[in-house]
Structure to design on (87 residues):
């Protein structure tokens, strides 16, 4: 796939239903977006590496953010992308 980080982000916003209260963070080659819809909360992180990209998406019951924050952080730190292995 040959999309820019911003193009991937815009697609994800539309796929999420363009929530009005979305939190987002951007880095040089990644973004994180979190939002709530009904009784579910969502977390998505996308990292790019040239023409490759890696995504982590998690949904969990709203109100249990403190419980899932540790799990999400562990998952995020544990996963290694294909281009990171090549280094």
């Amino acid at each position: 796939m040959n999309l820019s980080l911003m193009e991937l982000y815009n697609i994800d916003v539309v796929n999420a239903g363009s929530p009005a209260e979305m939190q987002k963070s951007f880095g040089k080659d990644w973004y994180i977006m979190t939002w709530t819809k009904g009784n579910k909360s969502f977390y998505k992180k996308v990292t790019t590496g040239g023409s490759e990209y890696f995504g982590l998406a998690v949904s969990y019951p709203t109100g249990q953010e403190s419980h899932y924050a540790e799990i999400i952080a562990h998952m995020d730190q544990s996963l290694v992308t294909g281009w990171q292995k090549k280094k």
